[in-house]
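FW: tagging you since you asked about this chain on Friday. Here's the raw sequence from the shared folder, copied in full. Didn't touch anything.
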Amino acid sequence: MSRQYLNVPFAQKDAAKSLGARFDGAVKRWYVDEGRDLAVFAQWLPTPVEAPSSLSPSSTDLALPLSEGALALPRAKGIPLSGLLNGVASAVAQAFSKGVWTLVEVVEARVRGHVYLELSERDGNGQPVAKARAMIWSATAVRILPEFEKATGAVIGAGIKLLVLARPVFHAQYGFSLEIDAIDPEYTLGDLEARKREIRERLQREGVFEHNRRQEPPWDYRCVLVVAPEDAAGLGDFRKESERLERFGACRFVYAHSRFQGEGAAREIVSAMVRALEAFPKGAPPDAIALIRGGGAVNDLAWLNDYDLARFICDQDIPVLTGIGHERDNTLPDEVAHQRFDTPSKVIAGIEHQILQRTREAGIAAEAVFTAAGRLTQRVRAEVDRSEAQVRTDAQIHLSRARHGSTQAMGQVEVASMRQVHEAAARSLARWNEAQGAARWHLAAARQQVPALLHDVHARAQASVAEARGGSDLALHAVVDRGRAATRAASQATEDRLQRLAERAQGSLQAARSQAEALMREVTGQGPEKTLARGFAIVRTPEGKPVTDQGQARALPALEIQFRDGVVPTRPDDRNRKE
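HL: got it, structure written out here
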């Protein structure tokens, strides 16, 4: 049904509504259906214009209608901008009364009751060739978005590609935009799967798709490199168990953080793993790399379907464990990794299970070792007991034989000892007799030699005394001569010292005399004339005796005062009267 759009100001909307006008939310304008009497709406009708023949509508379905209120060139001075844009709006509304299925890529999405989108189309080089704004009205969003999210597991967000039923809308004030009435989930699923399939086939052609999956699993976990978003909830679940393993010294965990969604997230994950692996000592890499994130929408996980990230995992000689999504989620890193787990919690559970399994195996082996050692100990103990019994038996036999042999030997020793004692006694008696005979002979010889030796000693002593007396006389004369020489030398030295002392005393006396004479000359030169010339005066009695005391001066009847140039007589009583 055809519509006649009106130019109703906001303040008059109630009046237009009361007359039967209806509001078109798509173009944000009031209208009346065809067949209504337009006379009552005359104040809101667009200004009628005519189109020149040069601008006749084309034959295409998208031609702008030139009916009343449609776009046309002015006959005289032109039309208002609102009239032009309202005509465009009417043309767009009539041309696209129904939506068109359109392929778009979401650049940005904002949910504020209504869903506001920034859409684009890119060429093969990733350059944008078209852009548009779009919105999903809240009433439509509550109807189509839950179905889309349930079917795809994805949410509307940046980077996702959609097939939408879009209706173009033009508004004089807000410009061009698209209103989305429906979304085809099959296209989004197909696009995501197509991207994964393309990367998977490339890795298979390069022959590396199975490389990490074929690595030998770690026999035990002693050190694990964990790569995860810093604030991920899954990381918190992982660390609850990993910190317990670290606390008991079962395994050490090294953490590296990176974004897991958004443009460039895959490159950041690769860079984080490279930096972390370079920090390990050369020749001592971790036992495994755990790539964990936790659950998320399918399009959030789609950022991980990246060739560079998948190739990096494939090239690793260290087993890579993934716990990126939920059980229903699947990404390329899950496919190429050595072992895939559904969640981060299951990754740490798998690591803990391996550690526990090795611990149980070690316990079983230790038990087997202890059991074998016990049996071996019992056998050795039995053999030791048998050996000990045999040794005791043999020892008793040898001891009996030794006792018997000892008894015989003791008898033989006693007989031999008695024989040797008798022989020694005989030899000792003979030697005693020989010693007594020799001693008597030496004593007799000594008695004969003593008088001759005494005489010889007496003669030698007298000769020594005489020789000593002669030596003493010579020594005495030498001492006396030396004493006299020393006395003469001391006397001479004393006389020399007395002579030098007399000379020094005479010099000192002469110097003192010269100094005294100089002082006398100086004193003589310092007579009263020089003192009087400096302003002093001498008080004398009339007899010429100096007066040095005030009381003596008051007692004298007359005084003379000598100045530099003469004497002035004075009387003490005259001075008193003046006072």
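FW: Confidence is low (pLDDT under 50) at residues 49-74, 575-579.
HL: agreed, and The chain has 13 helices and 16 strands.
FW: great, closing this out.
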